[in-house]
Amino acid sequence: MEIRYDHGICLENHRSKVILDPTRQSDIGVVTHGHMDHLVKDAFMTHHTLDILEVRTGERRGRGLSYGFPHPVGGLNVTLYPAGHVFGSAMVMVDDVLYTGDFNPDGGMTCGRPSSYKCRDLIIETTYGKEDYRLPPKDEVVSDILAWTECQLEEGPVVFGSYEFGKAQEIISLLNSIGQEPYVTDNIARLCAVYNRHGVPLRYDTGTPEGDFTAVVPPADLKKTHGEFLKIARKNKGTAAYLSGWCAFYSFFHSMDIDAQFPLSDHAGFDELMDYVKRCQPERVFTVHGSAREFACAVRKELGIEATALK
Ligand SMILES: [Zn+2]
Fold first, then answer.
1. Alpha carbon of residue 178 to chain centroid
2. Rounded distance from Cα 53 to ligand 1 centre (Å)
């Protein structure tokens, strides 16, 4: 199988061709998940991602596939598996080539946990592919967030900022587990409704909050200009926190009006990436996104496996 990058990850074998995470609409494309930088129309994707595409773009243009069932795309055999990154996210197996897409081996409350698969070629996303991008254990991050929330709620409201698809629903689910039904923005609520339709229960509220409440908003609403929920929270001695894997490496206190930041990631850190490569036992590794060159170099050095950055 020939593997190269051309407006997406192209896998070509004789006259058969599929494009993984295409950058423009494609009827031989496979979209791995519903983050805006991955969503294009007319491609194949999980039924979950197709519903997210409809909410985010207003158009239902794409072809829904179920996890675990092979389907022909562009003459090749394509099977989607859970990636643990966000709701509906998928790894893509094309014959003996595995593309992880954005993935998180720890999984999440709202998106399951991925497995590893033996493959000849592994194409792996390397957002945190530099050796010093080591993330703390996810269960520690989660218990820190919940302990902080319960403590802060004794003083006043608590507002969380995170990407509105994926991370927002993950924190809503965590808050539900301690009996909180957070207020959310209309966009986040529309996405949550898709989760509920697919049997992933999320309890939340919309409207104007009162008293001691929790809220989940997009990161822009934590800026010093303040979104509506943070304004109300601040008037009532409330606190705010930002959630992102990048919080493990950078401070966001200067750019946001926050009291805490937590490294809740939906990607694999360097150690988890390396561990995943070992478990898949590939003959060749291709790296994409983020620190692709650095991670390819580390794979060659530490595992002695042929590894190339795709772009
Ligand atoms: Zn993503």
1. 23
2. 14
Sign of CA dihedral 232, 233, 237, 242: negative
Q: How far is ligand 1, taken at its centre, from the CA of residue 269, in Å?
A: 14
Written as six digits, the tokens of 132 are 């010093």
| pLDDT tens per residue, range 58-82 | 999 999 999 999 999 999 999 999 9
Phi and psi for 85 in degrees, rounded to 5?
A: -90, -60
Ligand 1 centroid vs 234 CA: distance in angstroms? 31
In the reported structure, the alpha carbon of residue 208 is separated from the centroid of ligand 1 by a whole-number distance in angstroms of: 30
Q: How far is the CA of 155 from the centre of ligand 1 (A)?
A: 35
Phi-psi region of 304 (alpha: psi -120 to 50; beta: other; left: phi over 0): left
For residues 295 and 287, is the Cβ–Cβ distance under 8 A? yes
pTM of the shown model? 0.96
> Is the Cβ–Cβ distance between 31 and 42 less than 8 Å?
no
Detail the DSSP E strand segments found in 142-292. 158-161, 183-184, 214-217, 239-243, 260-262, 284-288
How does pLDDT run across 87-98, given as a tens digit for each residue? 999 999 999 999
Where do the domains of the chain lie, and which CATH numbers do they carry? 2-133+267-309 (3.60.15.10), 138-262 (3.40.50.12650)
- Ligand 1 centre from 33 Cα, in Å? 7
Burial (CB count within 10 angstroms: exposed 0-12, middle 13-18, buried 19+), residue 203 = middle
